[in-house]
Amino acid sequence: MSGAGTPDFFYREAQRLGYVARSAFKLLQIQNQYKLIKPGSSVLDLGCAPGAWLQVACQSLGPLKNGGLVLGIDLKKVKVPPLHCDSRVKTICADVMNLPKQQVRALSPKQKGFAVILSDMCPLVSGITTKDAALSAELGMRALDLAVGYQEEQSDGSSSSDDSGMLQVGGNLIIKLLESEDVKEISQISKPLFRKSSWLRPKATRPSSREIYLICQGLKPEAKV
Fold first, then answer.
1. pLDDT tens digits, the chain, 225 residues: what are they?
2. Which of 16, 33, 34, 85 is the most buried (most CB within 10 A)?
3. Is 191 a catalytic residue?
4. Cα separations in angstroms, 42 against 56, 183, 186
5. Cα of 30 vs its chain's centroid, Å
6. What is the reported pTM?
7. Which residue in 176, 184, 191, 220 is the catalytic one?
8. Which domains does the chain have, with CATH numbers?
C-alpha cells in the first residue's frame, strides 16, 4: 500500500477489484463525471506508476476491437498490470521533465498526438509545504507544456515542430496539483485554451492530502501553435 494511513475502503476495494492502487478510484470518478476518455482514444499517462490509471484508461477505451492506445511514462520502470489492461497499453521509463516532445509524439497513433493527457505526477513530498507546492506546480506546468506547448512558445517564440503541444484539438487534460497560490497561475493560463476547465477533489483522496485535480476539456483550435 502506498501513502500513509491504515487500509481504508478504497484500498480494500482496489484489492478486491484487481487495481494496483487506490488511486484508480480517482480516475474512475473523473471518468464517470466528465467522460474524458472515449472508446478508441489515444491516451498519454504522465507519472503512470504504479499503473492504476493505466488500468482505468484501458478499461475506458472499450473492447479491444475499438482500437486506441494508452502510453504510460514514469521515472520508474512500470510493468503493465495484468488485470484490466491489454495489448493497447505500453510504458516507457523516462524523465518527463527532459523528454523531447517529438520522441513522445512518435509513439502516438500516426504521430498526431493524443486525445487525452493525464498527469498524476507528484513530487517526492518533503513535508515543507511551500517547497512541495512549488515542485508540484513545476510538474503541472510541464504537463501543460507537453499538452499545448505553452512554455516553449513563451520562451523563444519559435515555431519548430517540437514547440507545439501533443494534445489534439478537442482533447482533454487532467493535471494533479497541490493546493497553493501557484495553482491559480496554472488555472489562469489553461482556462482560455480550453472550452471548459474545473477543479475536482476526488472522494478517494486521503483527508490529509492537499492534492486537487485541474480538469481541462476541449482544447480550442486556436490554442494549437
1. 344 456 689 999 999 999 999 999 999 999 999 999 999 999 999 999 999 999 999 999 999 999 999 999 999 999 999 999 999 999 999 999 999 999 999 999 999 999 999 999 988 878 888 898 999 999 999 999 999 986 544 444 444 444 689 999 999 999 999 998 888 889 999 999 999 999 999 999 999 899 999 999 999 998 765
2. 85
3. no
4. 13, 27, 24
5. 12
6. 0.90
7. 176
8. 9-223 (3.40.50.150)
